Structure formats: C-alpha cells, structure tokens
C-alpha cells in the first residue's frame, strides 16, 4: 500500500472529492496552508493499493488545474517588506503536488 498526500487548491477540492468518491477511494481531507503564499489549500490523505495509483493520478490531473495568483511583493513568506513602487507578481500554483510514500503497515482496529 502507498500513502498519497495530495496538496491541491481549495477551488479544485469539491470536484476531486466527487471523482474519488465515484471510484470508491478512501480519503481524509485536511485544511492546510501554503508556506509560501500563506493561503489556504487542501491536503488529501489517501491509502492506495499500487494497482490504483494510476487511476488516482489521472483523476488528480483531470480535476486539478494550474492557476496564477497575483501577489504583491512582501506577501509571500520569504519576501522582504514592500519596496516603494514594487509591482505585483504572477505566481503559478498547482495543478497539484503529490507525495507518494510506501506504507509499512496499515491496520484498522
Ligand atoms: P505555497 O507554499 O503557498 O506555494 C504556492 C506557489 O508559490 C507554488 O505552487 C510555487 O509555484 C510558488 N512558490 C513556492 N515557493 C516558492 C519560492 N520559494 N519562490 C518562488 N515561488 C515559490 P506549487 O509548487 O504548485 O505548490 C502549491 C502548494 O503545494 C504550496 O503552496 C505548498 O502548500 C505545497 N507544496 C509545494 N511544494 C511542496 C514541498 N516540496 N513540500 C511541501 N509542500 C509543498
């Protein structure tokens, strides 16, 4: 079994959860915050058998879209405070960030 952590944009969460439910994936939804933009996003935690990883990847690709966020310099966590005359920046976000981990043990009591 694998543990998949999928960090997605809030705007895509409902569509992806619907698609996952339709394909009988078990999922836990966590409210999370991006460290760079400091905006809310959604992290999904899924225990998935190896033969279903491909289907999961496809559902994520079909439902999670890349977008750009217009951010004032000084907003992101690593930025210096606003410089006078600073221009807003387009920051690309997503479609989705996936971590796929191997699970040593999966137990339900
Ligand atoms: P945030 O940390 O809020 O990052 C939002 C977007 O800002 C990122 O989109 C990326 O395009 C940009 N970005 C992040 N750090 C940057 C930096 N130091 N300089 C310039 N631009 C930067 P994504 O890469 O699609 O990431 C979306 C969200 O996924 C992130 O939100 C974060 O919550 C998570 N994430 C991405 N990579 C991660 C990683 N290696 N470990 C843990 N979480 C990650």
Automatic annotation (TrEMBL):
Q: Which InterPro entries match?
A: CdAMP_rec, N-reg_PII-like_a/b, N-reg_PII/ATP_PRibTrfase_C
Name of one Pfam family that matches: CdAMP_rec
Q: Which residues form a coiled coil?
A: none
Q: Which residues does UniProt assign to the signal peptide?
A: none
List the protein's name: Transcriptional regulator
């Amino acid at each position: 079994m694998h543990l998949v952590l999928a960090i997605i944009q809030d705007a895509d969460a409902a569509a992806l959860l619907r698609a996952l439910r339709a394909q009988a994936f078990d999922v836990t939804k966590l409210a999370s915050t991006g460290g760079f933009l400091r905006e809310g996003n959604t992290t999904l935690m899924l225990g998935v058998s190896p033969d279903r990883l491909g289907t999961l990847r496809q559902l994520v690709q079909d439902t999670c879209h890349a977008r750009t966020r217009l951010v004032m310099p000084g907003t992101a966590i690593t930025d210096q405070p606003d410089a006078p005359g600073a221009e807003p920046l387009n920051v690309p976000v997503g479609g989705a960030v996936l971590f796929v981990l191997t699970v040593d043990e999966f137990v339900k009591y």
